[in-house]
């Protein structure tokens, strides 16, 4: 199934795969595979909140509205912040062995910097693209949020790109205590922007693949060909309603 060698990468493309299923696949590939992978998922069908591994719901979410509207809440296996994802979100995940990129030290800042250069190719001549702190931005407005996890021999860097978003969904998020310096005192809607105002969706996906081809020899893998272990137990979990209710009561 896989291509051998550090400069090869397997590409798996999805459309509308539920984000919980995507995260379970990513975690398994990080922990059980020795190959390099790119997962491209064009949207997830149902609005879902995804928190980092150390996220505290009562500090990050308006739990009352989340419960009222029955919005699923996931705690993923990587760090990073909290995001509401839906059909307007494009996901790109890179899972690599530590020697996959020549000269790249497997630590958060070097990986983040390398990814910034990679996406600079994608957005060359488009908007005022930059990597600011841990976000991808056009000017001062964020459109891509990142999360990472680094193990002994491998690392994962995954991004939620806001090609579009529903303003109503942003009301589920509280203003976090820790924010990037460049956010200043802006509320969420002043802080983010839509990629669709800068680039067509299919163009972005195509240019991302082209940028990866400057770094790796890509091989497309069909979902049915993925050798996944049904017994693998992921740490990424869907939070149960009674857990959120308990947290709401405690707050």
TrEMBL record:
Superkingdom: Eukaryota
Pfam families: LplA-B_cat
BPL/LPL catalytic domain mapped to chain residues: 34-220
Family annotation (CDD domains): LplA
Protein name: BPL/LPL catalytic domain-containing protein
Organism per entry: Rhamnella rubrinervis
């Amino acid at each position: 199934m896989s291509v051998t060698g550090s400069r090869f990468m397997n590409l798996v493309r999805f459309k509308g795969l539920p984000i919980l299923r995507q995260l379970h696949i990513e975690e398994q590939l990080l922990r059980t595979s020795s190959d390099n992978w790119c997962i491209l998922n064009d949207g997830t069908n149902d609005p879902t909140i995804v928190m980092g591994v150390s996220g505290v719901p009562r500090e990050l979410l308006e739990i009352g509205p989340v419960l009222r509207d029955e919005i699923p809440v996931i705690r993923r296996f990587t760090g990073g912040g909290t995001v509401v994802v839906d059909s307007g979100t494009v996901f790109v995940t890179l899972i690599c062995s530590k020697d996959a990129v020549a000269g790249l030290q497997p630590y958060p800042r070097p990986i983040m910097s390398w990814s910034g250069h990679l996406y600079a190719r994608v957005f060359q001549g488009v908007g005022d693209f930059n990597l600011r702190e841990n976000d991808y931005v056009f000017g001062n407005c964020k459109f891509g949020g990142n999360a990472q996890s680094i193990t002994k021999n491998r690392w994962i860097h995954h991004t939620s790109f806001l090609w579009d978003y529903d303003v109503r969904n942003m009301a589920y998020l509280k203003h976090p205590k820790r924010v990037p310096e460049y956010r200043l005192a802006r509320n969420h809607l002043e802080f983010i922007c839509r990629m669709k105002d800068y680039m067509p969706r299919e163009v972005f996906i195509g240019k991302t693949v082209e940028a990866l081809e400057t770094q790796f020899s890509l091989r497309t893998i069909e979902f049915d060909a993925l050798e996944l272990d049904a017994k693998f137990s992921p740490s990424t979990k869907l939070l149960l309603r009674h857990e959120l209710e308990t947290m709401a009561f405690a707050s």
